[in-house]
Amino acid sequence: MKTKKSSLLALGVLALTISITACSSSGNNGQTPGEESAANRTSNTAASADSKAQSAYEKQYRTSVFLGDSITEGLSYHDVLREGNVLAGAGKTAEFAQKDVGDLVGRQPEHVYIQLGSDDILWPADNPQQYSLTHYAQLIHAIQSELPKARITLLSVTPVTAEAKKAEPRYQNIGKYNEGLKELASQEHVEYVDLTSLVNGHSDLYDTDGIHFQAAFYPILLDYLKDR
Q1: What pTM does this model have?
Q2: 3-state SS of 42-111?
Q3: Is residue 51 part of a domain?
Q4: Which partner from 19, 81, 147, 157 sits 20 to 30 angstroms from 225, CA to CA?
Q5: Is 79 left (phi over 0), alpha (psi -120 to 50) or beta?
Q6: 67 shares its domain with 14
Q7: Do 133 and 187 sit in the same domain of this protein?
Q8: Is 38 a domain residue?
Q9: CB 174 within 8 A of CB 159
Q10: DSSP result, 204-216
């Protein structure tokens, strides 16, 4: 009888040990409580820093709207700015963007950044640049008419990688297009910011297509623009 009780006691101790071990492994992934807490603190600190940075950009650009194509759309796609501060989409050209003026006016921005041309360069027209800049001027006039107090800044078409140019030779015209865009800005008395040097200085932040950009590029872009 005594032997039977001893066996039952041993089995109970073994079961309890297994249970404690399983709970410990499941709850801490093999880490001590102190190690788990440190890991969580590191994760929470990083998340808090990202949140603070995003809030700072949202505050800085709270009265601004970025109007543009899929490159501009990255600002909201990567959650750097709120969707209300970005009015952009894939395939947008200076002609198509005129349909967005009503939406833009409804947002009542004090500063409008326009970044178009990357798709315009590929437009199947006899002279894509002239065709685009003609519509670009119309877009500026429409915004000035509806938002006469708004500040307007044109952003240059961002350069692409050598591989992207090889795949699509028409991207060779980006430099020429930007010259025309700068001249247009002067004619229409709006501001112009050339992003070429900024992109060339962060060529490691291209996306895989060599045209668009990774999330890390957009905070750098906003920092670059805030003092201009």
Answers
A1: 0.79
A2: HHHHHHHHHHHHHHHHHHHCCCEEEEECHHHHHHHHCCCCCHHHEEECCCCCCCHHHHHHHHHHHHCCCE
A3: no
A4: 147
A5: left
A6: no
A7: yes
A8: no
A9: yes
A10: GGB-TTSSSB-TT
DSSP 8-class letter at 203: G
Whole-angstrom distance, CA of residue 213 vs CA of residue 217: 6
Residues 100, 191: one domain?
yes
The DSSP output letter for 124 is -
> What is the DSSP code (8-state) at residue 126?
S
- Note whether residue 53 is domain-resident: no
What's the N-to-C CA distance of the chain in angstroms?
90
Tell me the residue range of the domain where 197 lies.
61-226
Question: Does residue 104 sit in the same domain as residue 212?
Answer: yes
| pLDDT, tens digit only, all 228 positions of the chain | 444 444 444 444 444 444 444 444 444 444 544 455 554 544 444 445 566 667 799 999 999 999 999 999 999 999 999 999 999 999 999 999 999 999 999 999 999 999 999 999 999 999 999 999 999 999 999 999 999 999 999 999 999 999 999 999 999 999 999 999 999 999 999 999 999 999 999 999 999 999 999 999 999 999 999 977
CA 180-183-188 angle, to 5 degrees, is: 125
